[in-house]
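Continuing from the previous page...

OK, I double-checked the sequence for Proteolipid protein DM beta against my notes and this is the correct one:
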Amino acid sequence: MAGKFFQCLGRTPFASLLAALMVIIGTCVFCGTSFQALQLIIVGVFNNLFRFNLNWLEVLQVLFVVIGVVMGLFAIILLIFGFLATGSTRNNIYSGPKCIMGGRITAALFMLISYVLTLGWLALMAVGMVSVTVYASVDSICTNEIYGKRAEELVTYCFNLTRFGVYREERNSDSVCDYANLRALCNKVTEAGPLFCVAFGATVLVVVGMVHFLITLAANYTRIKISRELTEYRDAVEMEELELHSTEKKDPPPYRDASDS
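Thanks. Re-ran it with the corrected sequence; updated structure tokens here:
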């Protein structure tokens, strides 16, 4: 029983398993928090307060769902490949020359895809950093200029997007001046901000998981390559033994002296 347990452990790719968990959990958290945060900003802030639509943000929400599905499937595929290239399973699957070559090509292809996806997640991490920075700035404005003031003190106050470099041609579409709207703006930002922070942390987790996958794929590629060399060496040894046995069978019988008869 203990032997089977240790054999099972020997076939388990713990590095790929850990990377898959990080990628799947990070992707799910990122997609969920980003979707909800963008919903709060799109509907609660831009549509209701600033009175203009951002259609590309709505497309971005759908894109997050697609990213979650694709990354989850890719992580599962890499995990399955990790199982196939670990322990005695590797010796059984990648034993022939064609299987070994197919395994090397598959590992190289997965490394290329993982590298491209890692660059994409690094870009998302940069975007998440910008979102967190904007949230920290707006939250500081709300704390010092809105939450600590009474309605009478904010009669002439307006929150203007121009201080963030956003300009609109339509008049009064880039500012919020009413006290109730200012409070609603700050409340939405306070609600969506932590979600952006969690989404940024999730991108970091996914990037770490993708780096783990790159490391394991490189290691599996090397192991499969070594399996090819071992297979060629074993075939050469077996061929030499066959030639040796065939030579021994063809040798003439030993000379017998007449005095032995």
